[in-house]
Amino acid sequence: MNFCEKKLGGITVYDGKILRLEVDEVELPDGAKAKRECVRHHGGAAVLCVIDGEALLVKQFRYLYGKEIYEIPAGKLERGENPQFAAARELEEETGYVAGKLTPYLTIYPTPGYTDEVINVYLAEDLKKRAQKLDDGEFLSVEFIKLEKAVEMIANGEICDGKTVAAIYKYLSEKK
User: Fold this and answer.
1) Model confidence over 117-160: pLDDT tens digits?
2) Which residues of 63-85 are buried (b: 16+ CB within 10 A; e: fewer)?
3) What single string gives the DSSP state of each residue in the chain?
4) Could you tell me the CA-to-CA distances from 20 to 81, 97, 116, 148 in Å, in that order?
């Protein structure tokens, strides 16, 4: 059976700097009609850096969760921006590190039930330390955390960010 849904029409409810909210009408595989609330997003880029068994993480306050969380360095793409360029930019801005090599590593659909956001994760190698270049209004700390400790932090709920969990577990699964 073909499970494809066909877009019949839609409206834009909100169009902002980071996202666009649309409500689409679709035809389901059985011919019935349904509504889909769609958050359109330009996507993001993130970077996993591991040096001597330690992952480079940033810790920052996330307003929607009301607390500080650990994440791999990441940021949103500008419309049409190359994800690898964005990954390099965010790594340097947030951490002050520049990668001699960035390799595509993982593609993540963070919440496929309502958004088309795609996060492209890169693996960084040959890091060199430069100056951090935080954006205005951006406040974060940079920490190297042993991978074994990061796994403990995931298990006990200290690291909950999906892209970070996925990147660390993929890295560890490949190192076995």
Assistant:
1) 999 999 999 999 998 888 788 889 999 999 999 999 999 999 99
2) eeeeeebbbbbbbbbeeeeebee
3) -----EEEEEEEEEE-SSEEEEEEEEE-TTS-EEEEEEEEE--EEEEEEEETTEEEEEEEEETTTTEEEEE-SEEEPPTT--HHHHHHHHHHHHHSEEEEEEEEEEEE-S-TTTB---EEEEEEEEEEE----PPTT--EEEEEEEHHHHHHHHHTTS---HHHHHHHHHHHHHT-
4) 17, 32, 11, 39
**Predicted confidence band at 1 (pLDDT cuts at 50, 70, 90)?**
confident
pTM as predicted: 0.93
- Nearest-5° angle of CA 117, CA 155, CA 125? 60
| Joined tokens for residue 34 | 């349904």
Taking the C-alpha atoms of residue 41 and residue 21, their distance in angstroms, rounded to an integer, is 9
Instruction: Check pLDDT > 80 for residue 64.
Output: yes
* Tokens 């001597």, residue located: 52
With cut-offs at 50, 70 and 90, classify the pLDDT of residue 66.
Answer: very high
